[in-house]
Amino acid sequence: MTGFMRNWLSGALKDHSSLKKGVLTGILRVSKESIFSGLNNLEVAGLLEDGPFADKFGFTEPEVESLLADFDLSETLPQAREWYNGYLFGETIIYNPWSILNFIHKQPAPPAAYWINTSSNDLVRELLESGGAEIREDLEALLAGDSVECEVTEDLPLRDIRGDSWAIWSLLLFSGYLKPVGIREGEIEPTYQLAIPNREVSILYRRIIRHWLTRHIPAKYLNRLLHALTTADVPTFTRHLQTLVLNMLSFHDTAGGEKKTPEAVYQSFVLGLLANLGNQYRIRSNIESGLGRADILISPIEPGERGIVMEFKRLKENEQMEEQLTKALDQIEEKDYPATLRAEGCNEVLELAIVFDGKRLEVRERVSGIAGSAGISSRAQVPA
Q1: Which Pfam families is this protein grouped with (predicted)?
Q2: Which helix (H) or strand (E) holds 252?
Q3: Cα-based torsion angle of the residue sequence 197, 198, 201, 205 in order, rounded to the nearest 10 degrees
């Protein structure tokens, strides 16, 4: 096959006297196969730099505005931005053309995941699920609105993808599942900050997290935990969370390490569980809110519903559980972490202090109103 492709490309694109110009499109450059050995002087238009074709890979913002206006759908532009915008080619912002056309065609139906449903995405799912704990933790961070930092290569041999996180993220970047949001020059190669481009693509990642979790957690237990959380049934939420921690979280993980603090271990674990909240809530981690950074913010898509703030603490030697629960709730209030949720229209905020002692945990709750006034505070713990 390699020999055929080499001869075909050379004969069609280099030695063809009737051809003035040829265009090859695809996701990745083919590397280490020598199929381009018969060609030279290729001009590559990629997504990491601006070029004459940067606005040709999809619809630009003015084009989407014009399309929506032609169909009297200008009021849906914010939805289109949230769901299908966010792809970057150099500095040019691009919309997914397939999804935009389907979004217009299916009106007045609500936005849906059109592009990611055009294929099975089996390779993406397999790579992420087999990538180990580091990949899963990065994936949870992405779903919480953070970015991952890694080296990126356009010359990516497909046979080298499995097992290397940088190769997996590179593939996802060039195939439309991530976007570059920053760059940091390194001693040898630059590193890029990569993030999920839009809400449509985030649905795929949530499906992958859900698929991984359901292989380890019966769906009914996970659904009960999430239902208890969203209905502010804190004792039930605490009981189910304690069960999952006992069954799934390694004691050695909760001791922390050089790269990850124990609090971050708990936080990542809970973020993975929250990925299953679906399209009703927006989950964000380590986000600036009020006067500091909240561990986890959960905001409803529909304004006026209850928002949730989570603050995690680990019980250290000679510390008391009651003291740390109070400290966590006080931190939420003093730093005004619910400020972002109130600004987004939440009339009520459930504040949760979650303190871990190894694989044992306790939760204290407090409800604050629209002006930030504190409400009832209570403590939930699992009986010994």
Answers
A1: PDDEXK_9 (PF08011)
A2: helix 251-254
A3: 80
Smallest CA-to-CA distance from 244 within 236, 256, 232 is with 236
> Which letter, b or e, does each residue of 342-363 get, where b requires 16 or more Cβ atoms within 10 Å of its Cβ?
beeebebbbbbbbbbeeebbbb
Strand partners, 94: 87
- Of 298, 80, 88, nearest to 196 by C-alpha is 88
b (16+ CB within 10 A) / e for 234-251? bebbbbbbbebbeeebee
Whose tokens are 């990925």? That residue is: 275
Instruction: Write the CA distances from 210 to 149, 200, 252, 271, integer angstroms.
Output: 24, 16, 24, 12
Sort 224 into a burial class: Cβ within 10 Å, 0-12 / 13-18 / 19+.
Answer: middle
Single pTM value for the model: 0.66
Identity of the residue numbered 221? Y
* DSSP secondary structure letters along 273-322: HHGGGGGGEEEEEEEEETTEEEEEEEEESSTTSPEEEEEEEE--TT--HH
Encode pLDDT of 8-33 as tens digits: 777 777 767 788 887 777 776 655 45
For residues 118 and 126, what is the distance between their CA atoms, to the nearest angstrom? Answer: 17
Q: How far is 210 from 225, CA to CA, in rounded Å?
A: 14
Cβ 28 vs Cβ 36: under 8 Å: no
Q: How far is CA 31 from CA 159, 200, 272, in A?
A: 10, 30, 35
Q: Which carries the bigger pLDDT value, residue 282 or residue 353?
A: 353
Cis preceding-peptide flag for 108 (omega within 30 of 0): yes
Using DSSP's 3-state secondary structure scheme, residue 73 falls into coil
Integer distance in angstroms from the first to the last C-alpha of the chain?
64
What is the torsion angle, in degrees rounded to the nearest 10, for the CA atoms of residue 105, residue 106, residue 108 and residue 111? -110
Tens digit of pLDDT for each residue in 239-291? 998 988 887 765 445 554 444 556 677 777 787 788 777 678 888 888 888 88
